[in-house]
Please model this.
Amino acid sequence: MKPGYGEVLLAEGDPTTREDEERLVAEFRRQLDEGMWAAVPTIAADSGRREAQMVRDFTEIPLDAERVIFFPRAAGG
Amino acid sequence: MLLALLALALVASVLALPSLVGLWSGWQKRRAAQRTRWPRRDRLELHDPGRERRAEQRARELLRSCVNSEEWAMYRDLGFIRVAGRLRPSDPATGEPAYAYLIYPHKPIVAYVPKTRRLLSEYCVEFPDLTRAISHSRLPDSDDMLAKWMALTGDEERLIHHANMHLPGRQIDPGRVRRDLWRLAEWERQRRGSDSIEARPT
Model:
């Protein structure tokens, strides 16, 4: 999410291939270095409800995740 | 007489010159500062009337794809989303949360007790653009909703830690929140019958 623009596609690829994974990891780190938060939309196994999982490291992203959403980190308003 | 007037005008001009120079340089400094704050690219971007509308349309689709269908319908119909708090255990008998949040676009998050409708606090939080020191852009409304929703459902404690907590009424009129809770109760009753938590008499 980018202020003034909304959703912007940063990178896409298949994390099971080495080349794509390196690119995705680099983009993930770049976003976090810029101060963004990362979240993966998920579905709770017990309730079936949709929720989000905040991730701080590429290895925390679930293997079946379709997307990671980056958004500016929260600050007191 | 004419000569005296001309001399007077000349003296007045000379006396006023420093003030005029000061005004001129001040105006130039303000213009330079404005240019620094708003680079040319940004000033031009502000003139695109459709950009924010398109961004909001994309944001609505993204929000819809992430939240539960009930939450999406709530936002579409009422303009806010209710998220259950998870830092306190729910009522084991009814399953109702001990507290919940109402999230509004670009407004504080309001915490309340569903059972009594008592307002607990306002959490003022925003998601500023960190890539530019001073930005005049903000997230589209639906992206702001999604950011709050993801942060609350993903790591409630961290979001609350980053927010500024205030008593109810600091930014959002408590009367409005109570009306929204009533609207929510009516909305739920229409959708699911009259067994919703907020619809119960207090």
In short: Chain B touches chain A through 41 residues (CB under 8 Å). Helices of chain B lie at 2-37, 40-45, 51-66, 69-78, 141-162, 174-192. DSSP finds six helices and five strands in chain B. Residues 55-192 of chain B form one domain.
